[in-house]
Amino acid sequence: MTTGVNKMSESVIRSKQAQREVNGIPTEVVCTEFSNYIFVVLTQYGKIGTLISVTPDSRSNDLSTPTFSTKVLLGKDEPLTHVCAKNLAMFVSQESGNRPVLLGLALKDSSIDAIKQIKEMIKSCQVW
């Protein structure tokens, strides 16, 4: 019976998380790998926030510099949201074999310095 329980606890969905202060603001990152996409939550509010789909553009002719499309699925659809989403999710997609990324974004500080620090947090949570 115990063996069956252990097998059940071995999830096919891998997830990692990290927490640290970014410019004095407690920040959490959770990365979860699904078979067809990577789900990344970045929060300084303790909530998922705006949900953005970041997908590699298959129509791009230049393979050395792939392009990405962003679409806000839930939450505020603002230009800065798209810029942050592309900046944070592009390398996740590239590192995971060009899989789409679903990004939950709830940031108080979206400065260039904060984004760099958050990128490092994402790298420490790689599940792909």
TrEMBL record:
GO terms for biological process: proteasome assembly. It holds the Pfam family PAC3. This is Proteasome (prosome, macropain) assembly chaperone 3.
